[in-house]
UniProtKB/TrEMBL annotation:
The keyword Cell inner membrane does not apply. It holds the Pfam family HTH_5. InterPro entries: ArsR-like_HTH (IPR011991), HTH_ArsR_DNA-bd_dom (IPR001845), HTH_MetalResp_TranReg (IPR051081), WH-like_DNA-bd_sf (IPR036388), WH_DNA-bd_sf (IPR036390). One of its GO terms (molecular function) is DNA-binding transcription factor activity. Keywords: DNA-binding, Transcription, Transcription regulation. This is Winged helix-turn-helix transcriptional regulator. The keyword DNA damage does not apply.
Length: 103
């Protein structure tokens, strides 16, 4: 199966913001309403929507409508795929780390 580098780049780009990383940490405890996430930050609702759109489009977060509220949760399958990808890079680094040693 070919590696989709574009998808991984999108995920890592989404992780390139402190607020979004904090949101992911919050969601690790379970599904949250946008209003619950908003309470923890000094940002406006449109700014939160912007961050959630980036996280959702990258595949890191699932969203669903519950009446008038938006609920968000981690997309654990996507996070696990990203973790496997990064572990693979790390394993490759470890196996080639001594490629240029001088005797």
């Amino acid at each position: 199966m070919a590696i989709n580098y574009r998808e991984y780049a999108s995920m890592m780009k989404a992780l390139g913001d402190e607020t979004r990383i904090q949101i992911l940490a919050m969601l690790s405890a379970g599904e949250l309403c946008a209003c619950e996430i908003l309470e923890k930050f000094e940002i406006t609702q449109p700014t939160l929507s912007y961050h959630m759109k980036i996280l959702s489009e990258s595949g890191l977060v699932n969203s669903r409508r519950d009446g008038v509220w938006m609920k968000y949760s981690l997309n654990r399958a996507t996070l696990e795929a990203l973790q496997r990808f990064l572990n693979g890079i790390n394993a490759e680094i470890q196996t080639t780390n001594n490629c240029c040693e001088l005797d």
